[in-house]
Predict the 3D structure of the following.
Amino acid sequence: MLEGWVESEAKTKAAFEEYKDLLLSFEGSTLSFKGRPGVSYSLRAKHANQTERNLFVLVDIIDDDPADRWLSVCFYADMINDADEVGDWVPGGLMGEDACCFNLDEDDAEMRTYIKDRLTDAYNSATK
């Protein structure tokens, strides 16, 4: 999927690869990938310490327009600190629990970094 993904002006492929690499660097974490072409491709990260939840982040590549894919990065709301209130609150939006989701659909370095920091928040919560 990644090999065939042509980067857009939004630079979402580069952001996805950066997030994937960060998740791979987290000790004790495993990744799984589920593809639904034309809908989304989901990268899920789980930490070995997690016993009640199947993941600590869901990074979705939204594939409704393969020429202009965008990312939706969702966390359990209680696992991150969205101090800037940038994310969208989604009641019951992640495996039936409240979620905080961040959309990346344009080339925005600050938002990429903000999401990356939330990935670290969620990882740290998952390791406890």
User: Anything to note?
Assistant: The domain at 12-126 is CATH 3.30.1460 (Yope Regulator; Chain: A,). The radius of gyration is 14 Å. The chain has a mean pLDDT of 95.
